[in-house]
Amino acid sequence: MTNRKDEHLKHALSYHSPYNSFDDMELIHHSLPDYDLSDIDLSTHFAGYDFDFPFYINAMTGGSQKGKEINDKLAQVAEACGLLFITGSYSAALTNPNDLSYQMKHDRPHLLLATNIGLDKSYQAGLQAVSDLQPLFLQLHVNLMQELLMPEGERTFKNWKKNLAAYVKHLTVPLILKEVGFGMDIKTIALAADLGIRTFDISGRGGTSFAYIENKRSGSDRAYLNEWGQTTAQVLLKAQAYCDKVEILASGGIRHPLDMVKALVLGAKAVGLSRTMLALLEKYPVSEVIAIMNGWKEDLRIIMCALNCKTIAELKNADYILYGRLREAQSQ
Fold this sequence. Notes:
- By secondary structure, this protein is α/β, with parallel strands linked by helices.
- Helix content is 41%, strand content 15%.
- It has helices spanning 4-14, 65-81, 91-95, 123-133, 144-149, 160-170, 186-195, 210-218, 232-239, 257-265, 275-283, 286-306, 324-331, and strands at 25-27, 44-46, 49-51, 55-57, 84-89, 112-118, 138-142, 175-179, 199-201, 247-251, 270-273, 320-322.
- The strands form three sheets. An eight-stranded parallel beta sheet has the order 4-11-10-9-8-7-6-5.
- Helix 2 packs across helix 12 (286-306).
- The mean pLDDT is 93.
């Protein structure tokens, strides 16, 4: 029987989003900058920690031998590049004590490690994940449409808000509420902020589509839902009013450093890479992926210098133009 996590990986790589909202955003070049390239500072801060770089490897996989192999490679890249690495949902390890697909920290003492668990799980499960992995923080993912389309998915959701409040009450590590590619709505951000959540990964449409993945797994005729949700840039535009109240992280369709900078201009503290990292590891050896990631750091500095922005915070003042569907969405 095929492992569900392995099916997710297979279909994630086969999907190509027909639209990426970052293509409808143009940054305005600045011809006379105030800074040298060496002045550019890529550091950022979120979830109670300082990070040297404003991008990280986001939650993807675990719970299978293939998941372990991919996580091992991702951990190599993360440690070599000084990047934060967030494992996939720890739920599989909770049901299988022999699962080693998440155990990377003891081999890599300098690894910046966090982990992830679904909000359908009780806070006790979160406590176990924290005890096992000692992560910097815990991502709590909300994946409603995925669960609805998944043949073996959840069908009860009323307890999710209670679970979230319990996590805030009982866990001492920082918490991040994360969508899984459908775009977190503003009402959810406001509600979770009232419950005590301070960091959000809005994870919009444009990258991995878990609607597509579950439709492929089930063989259903619900392909019309493959593009369900709001795009990453659209959600960032709507969430700008909250950027001074909470910490916004962006993921979903981040393909390269230009997309990263556009997300940072729209108020994100940092950006997460999932499918992009998976595709790079499928195409290149780990050593080359490490070289690409280090090159992307330099690319970020180049783009920031061309925008006359020395720091991530200054990017929020950069000028930009919106076109097409993104402009239409903003005007509504």
